[in-house]
Amino acid sequence: MPTSVELRQQRAGVVESMRSITEAAETANRGLEAEERQSYDRHEQDFRSLTERIERQEAEELRSAQMAEPIQRGRNRPDDGGRGTEEQRTQERRSAFFQALRRGLPRMAPEQRALVENAAGEILVPEDLETEINRALPELTIMRGIASQRSITTNRVRRRSLAEVAVGWGKLETAEQDLTDSMPSTPTDEYTYIEDLYGLAKVGEDELDDSDVNLDAFIRDSFARACAEAEDTGFTVGAGHAAHQPVGFMTAGGGVPTVAAAGAAAITTDDMMKLIYATPKQYRRNGRFAIPSGTELAIATLKDADDRYLWQPSLQAGRPNTFLGFPVENQEDMAAVAASARVAAFGDFNAGYRIYDRQGMTVKVLDQLYAEDGLIGWKIRKRVGGDVVRPQALRILAMAAA
């Protein structure tokens, strides 16, 4: 009888076959042909059948693992409403995860290995621990604190181009409204892709002897830091799917309109005000600047006609500085002031940019590569994407050519 891991590997092959059928049709800009539809339907039936078998096999493997454990007084009492079983299963996954990090999958018992191994032979990070890691990211990044976020279960998100919705007053019966259809007559199919983000964390062999509590805290911190900086760079200046990166809001691929600065070597107050008022009013309400620290230092010296500084330092921890009454976020991946450079952005980032997280963070244990240094390497794989979903909510300041 195949194990749940082997069944998952079979199911992954079925999914890959289904994906190749649909991608072939989309590449040719057509629907599925009759033979392709029959093949796709057969794969779909196989997928459902394998999913049922996996659930049954995992339940059987879990029962076998529980039967092998010593009986503990008071555990899983009938009057606990079934909570003990779910809590126990979560704890078993965490325990198996930490054992996999310490020992590697090949050295684990089959029933424990099945709890944390995916079809590619990688270690699955437990969902609750992955949630804790994602919760720590906004504290380490700029973009996750200001952009919208969404969890998905696919490798890409399909979206259609949509203009601003028009509204009007008047009675429905008399057709007094003067409305414009917000959907273009020939809408454009657009996709946001989920990319693979890799990070590397190394831990001393002695640290692996610590308790699971200490290891848990180390993983949350190191995994989050390994991903945070790369994410911020990708969401800001990422080159898009062709480069296996998110679409950065500062790139031409993001489609954000630009505002031309008056000069090529220095930013003026007039430039920043043009940037603000070029943004539609409904997005100015929640507007904020995104600029690197060097540019913030430059605008910190700008004054009004009464010789008062326009830049105001924050007097409260956790709140950003302000300029012309709007918050200033430091994004160090943006270009410094130079001829033709895109040096600043303004707008409602929550409305304009969206981050997509796909659950399923995985780890590979590199126990030989750093053995001479007494270290164990963990190669982290996180699936995440990002794209400008509403370009009109943002504006970019571009310096003049030299």
UniProtKB/TrEMBL annotation:
UniProt main location, coarse: virion
Region described as Disordered: spans on this chain: 1-92
Basic and acidic residues bias (residue ranges): 32-63, 76-92
Source superkingdom: Bacteria
Subcellular localization(s) per the UniProt record: Virion
Domain Phage capsid-like C-terminal intervals: 121-397
Name under which the protein is recorded: HK97 family phage major capsid protein
Species of provenance: Streptomyces fulvorobeus
